[in-house]
Amino acid sequence: MHVPTDASRAQGPDFARAQHAAAIDLPLHDWPNEAWWRAYRDPQLDALVAAALRDNPNLAVAQARVASANAAVAAERAADGGHVGVETGFNRQRYSSNGFFPPPIGGAFYNDASVQLRAGYDFDWWGKHRSLIAAALGDTDARRAEAAQAQQVLAASVAQSYLRLQMLWARQENTAALIALQRDLLAGREKRLAQGLAGSDDARNAELDLAVLQEQQQRFDTDAGREREALRALIGGDPAALGELAHVRPAPPQDAVPRELGLELLARRPDLQAARWRVEAQLGRVAAAEAAFRPDINLAGAIGLDAVSLGKLLRYPSRTLLLGATLDLPLFDSGRLDAQLGQARSSRDELLAEYNGAVLDAVGEVAREAATLQGIAKETALHVDAARATTRLAENAEARMARGLATRATVLQARQAVLRQRDVALQLLDAQLQTQVALTKALGGGYHAANNNNHS
Asked: What is the mean pLDDT of residues 198-212?
């Protein structure tokens, strides 16, 4: 049969477009390390990531899928090439008196015992089995890459959850300081109200501001509780797993993004490697479907013993010998082979289109997170100037109060302004930390595909 022409125009990714904008320029230009979370120099974070990578059930599922794919490879390899086996049998049969054999065979019972050594060899002239093995190897590589992707996603999720929890605690502590100042301010206004030196509106406004701060503090407490439980679930810990987690101020490492992405990004992202290997696996299935159109020649042989009684089985005249060859040549099958090949090619084109889209999406993800980090850095630089100005105002207020030129309320309000600027700084730091981890994950989280020659 004639193999149908492949009219597909599907192509691989356009690496000319697989770059981030030249305007994205962070201080360092490098790829993440394999254990990138250690750059935060936080032993607690290191221990949490290690616990998650050790105990999370989702990783066990990924590893089980890798084992299943390896078993499929072994099965395909077992079906290729030659095979040798031993067959034995024993039958007791009555032959018909009116059948092919006349008496005394007809109408009597006879035993039939046999033992044979059988061998066969499939030459795989057109590479059908080799293509199916390549497809199974591609599936295995894809499963390995998916397992690596699961590890990277889990590590990033643990880091983001832990860092977010620490920043919520930091904002809680800052709000507690604001509440203490507000209570001091409220006490002063109530005292002035009792002395007839201020109106009731001043005291009521101070009470309202205190209530707003307390509401904010409760919201932080709720969010921290939720984040704590999310982190505990990620590491697979018991209810007491995070009981001794200390409050620390995260120190973000210096931001970095490679100067160029392109081909290197494919080797750095496990999800892109998985997509690529799925395409390669499907290419093997297409080749196997094309090989099904061609004739298949196999050899078979057997040598053994056969006798009508066990006593004669081991005698020389009981020997048997078989040599043979089979030719399988498809001529007409109602379009079954055409349909199978068309389906295999369509699946190949679909996987290739998904691969191309994944490459561009990955580049876009890196560009978005890098641009966000660059913007946060600019916002932080501007905020530093505002925070310094607020601090100077607070210091001037205290100096004026020491000379009797300013009230205590003025000083308390200036200190509150400093704490509010600190809260803004904490929000910017939180955004930086979250985006750093997101960028690290977008760059592959330290993964690097090894040279793979399984399909050669």
From this structure: 80
